[in-house]
Amino acid sequence: AQTIYVLNDLVVDNKLDRGYDSDWGAIPIDSPFTLSLKMSSVNSRGGWGSLKFYGKPKSFGKQWWEGILRMDIFPSSNSIQLAFRDGTQDTFKTTITVPLNTNQQFSLSFKDPQGKTFAVLDQNRRELRTIDLTTIPGLEMKEGLFPERKIYPGFSTGPHSKLTVSSMIIQKTPSGRFVADAQVQPGLRELATQRGIRIGTEWWLWQLWDKRYNNLMSNNFNTAIISDFSCPERFWSSPNTYDFSIVDNVVDAAIKQGYVVRASHLNWGTYDCDRPDWLAKGKFSREEYRKILETQIKTIVNHFKGRVTEWSVANEAIARSFCNSGCDFWADKIGAEYVELVLRWTKELDPNSTIIMNDTNNHSLRGPVARPVTLRMLDTVRTLRAKGVPVDAVGLHRQSTF
Questions:
Q1: Cis peptide leading into 160, omega within 30 of 0?
Q2: Could you tell me the end-to-end alpha-carbon distance of the chain, in angstroms, rounded to an integer?
Q3: How does pLDDT run across 315-364, given as a tens digit for each residue?
Q4: From CA 72, how far away is CA 7, in angstroms rounded?
């Protein structure tokens, strides 16, 4: 069989008081395939941990459960539970328990790429049970679990729960002639590193099980741009309470793979970014908001200093400055001078880092959208640098047309 996806040693330790989950990209399947797993879960306070596999992912504009097709695999000490959602209600439609020691490898062998029928196999490849999803009463999966011949994997964890996936392997029957990797030239990563150039893109830890993604990243990029910093709601539960465990895992994994790490973004004033309720709904004075922001910036920078090499600071503040109010949380609470403050605080704490002032639609002097943002950013950066405010680099981001 041809191995197409491999995931090893994934540990998700959710120390939050709420659930945490992640959805990954699509895996195309065009032939019968086998999903092999070795996983375990440690829960407290009634928590849970599972791998989930969508055949139809969530759709925007609907309830999260409407129209989805999904299988969750929950491990316990002496069994696994296979729980199925068919998009008709917000709870599992069917749950099947298979006696199995999850300290050992087990497999689901799908007889067809649509996922209509599969066998559960133990570590010795002995068949424990065969399941036909098209014949289960009340379960709306007549076309199978994966009718579009795509799998969308991910995970879910409950509060104070730990999910460990020692290995996940997806193998399929080859449908054509195998061609070995023909790359003989050095990739962009090697060429850029030789010349002292940093070249990077968005880096997703949860995509590394995809061999194609892993090869693309490792061959062409030496900088990992990590967006887990952008919205602090997941790790900032109260004014002085932070849980960086999830972001730590991502940053440490990137460093282990040899990447320079850019935090994207240390500070982002957009109202689209979730903030903890105590901050979003709080009523503080201007000076109190200033102190809250200072504490947040200094706590994050101190924690990741030495591991994060580049900080994207005050993201898109210039583009939002064209709006009088309701566009920039920190400008509304403190004033436009918050940009200068966060730049200074970051550089003072991490003087060896690169401080980037990033914005959007600041890429051109042409066009009615880009030109005013570009001119205002140019003037702002000149003014800040004349005052001794550290701006080491400017990020250009095109969002609209010219």
A1: no
A2: 49
A3: 999 999 998 889 999 999 999 999 999 999 999 999 999 999 999 988 88
A4: 17
User: What span, in angstroms and rounded, lies between the C-alpha atoms of 340 and 329?
Assistant: 15
More confident residue, 99 or 285: 285
Q: How many CB atoms lie within 10 A of CB 316?
A: 24
Query: How do residues 111-152 score in pLDDT, each as one tens digit?
Result: 889 999 998 988 877 778 889 999 999 999 999 999 999 999
Q: Helix, strand, coil shares of the chain as percentages rounded to 5?
A: 25, 30, 45
Burial class (CB in 10 A: 0-12, 13-18, 19+), 242: middle
E strand or H helix at 331 = helix 329-333
Q: Does an H or E element contain 370, and which?
A: helix 370-386
Find residue 197's DSSP bridge partners: none
Indicate the helix (H) or strand (E) that contains 214. Answer: helix 211-220
Confidence band, pLDDT 50/70/90 cuts, at residue 251: very high
Helical pair 370-386 and 338-349, crossing angle rounded to 10 deg: 50
Report pTM. Answer: 0.62
Q: Is beta strand 161-172 parallel, antiparallel or unpaired with respect to 2-14?
A: antiparallel
Angle at 47 between CA 44 and CA 49, to 5 degrees: 115
Instruction: Write the Ramachandran bin of 130: left for phi over 0, alpha for psi from -120 to 50, otherwise beta.
Output: beta
Cβ–Cβ < 8 Å for 86, 6: no
Residue 303: strand, helix, or coil: helix
In DSSP notation, 239-260 reads TTEE--HHHHHHHHHHHHTT-E
Q: How far is CA 301 from its chain centroid?
A: 20
pLDDT digits (tens, 9 = 90+) for 268-309: 998 877 688 889 889 999 999 999 999 999 999 999 999 999
